[in-house]
Design goal:
Distance between the termini: 24 Å
Shape: elongated
Structural class: mainly beta
Number of domains: 1
Radius of gyration: 18 Å
Strand content: 35-45%
Number of strands: 13
Helix content: under 10%
Largest sheet: 4 strands, antiparallel
Length: 147
């Protein structure tokens, strides 16, 4: 089976206008996962070959297609709790607007181009790391250049 190739500098929609393909190539998420840590189930994913639930609130996602290097990616994480299906639990921010390439104990975990470590939990007070927790939905999205 021969593989085809489409070459275009812009994409045009009949009513929504045009977009430069550079934005599609460079500005799109290359990895995404929605993980239900309560049921220990990946509910949806993109470019994920496997996910390991390493501990309460700690997860490791292996990519199907690796990034250029460990530093050629940015990861964003958010969670929803199982109490009221919101991103807040008892007035404490859950998951966060944040990136967490490591674990919730503050221990540095070396990264690689082929995986991302991420977590969920409550944020702590100044100087503390909060509590790791499992939630019904933890989202992880990774941007960057694939190898």
């Amino acid at each position: 089976m021969a593989l085809g190739k489409i070459k275009a500098d812009t994409l045009e929609h009949s009513t929504a206008g045009t977009v430069d393909t550079q934005y599609v190539v460079n500005g799109s998420a290359k990895h995404f996962v929605r993980y239900n840590a309560i049921a220990q189930n990946t509910e949806t994913s993109l470019n994920q070959s496997s996910l390991t639930d390493t501990a309460t609130g700690n997860f490791s996602s292996n990519f199907t297609n690796a990034y250029n290097s460990a530093s050629d990616k940015a990861t964003f994480v958010n969670s929803f709790n199982s109490i009221n299906n919101t991103s807040r639990s008892f007035g404490t921010l859950v998951g966060g607007i944040g990136i967490l390439e490591g674990n919730m104990t503050g221990t540095f975990i070396p990264q690689s181009a082929s995986l991302v470590n991420f977590g969920s939990g409550t944020l702590g007070d100044a100087g503390t790391h909060g509590d790791r927790k499992d939630y019904i939905a933890t989202y992880c999205m990774t941007l960057g250049d694939l190898a």
